[in-house]
Amino acid sequence: MKLRVWHNCQVGAVKNFYIDVDNVEQAWKILNTLWDYDLFQYENNVKPDYCNMSGLEYFDEEEKDWCEWYDDDGYDIKEHFENLEDD
Length: 87
Known about the structure:
single chain; 87 residues; alpha+beta; 2 helices; 4 strands; globular
């Protein structure tokens, strides 16, 4: 399955940034790095404010399009890993 992380560091101002990933665990690490970097820039006055969004997509071979990834229980990547932490 083809997977990619998408990230938008300033919703409405810039287009999404995409990173191909090998698996869900790698995607989670990259997403956390991107979120930490956005927060670092905000806290150090690199950018005055921000509104970011991110997620994980998979390529649907039937539809020939990228779709948002959800686990077998219907959770997105953030919810998926939050649930693992709760267990």
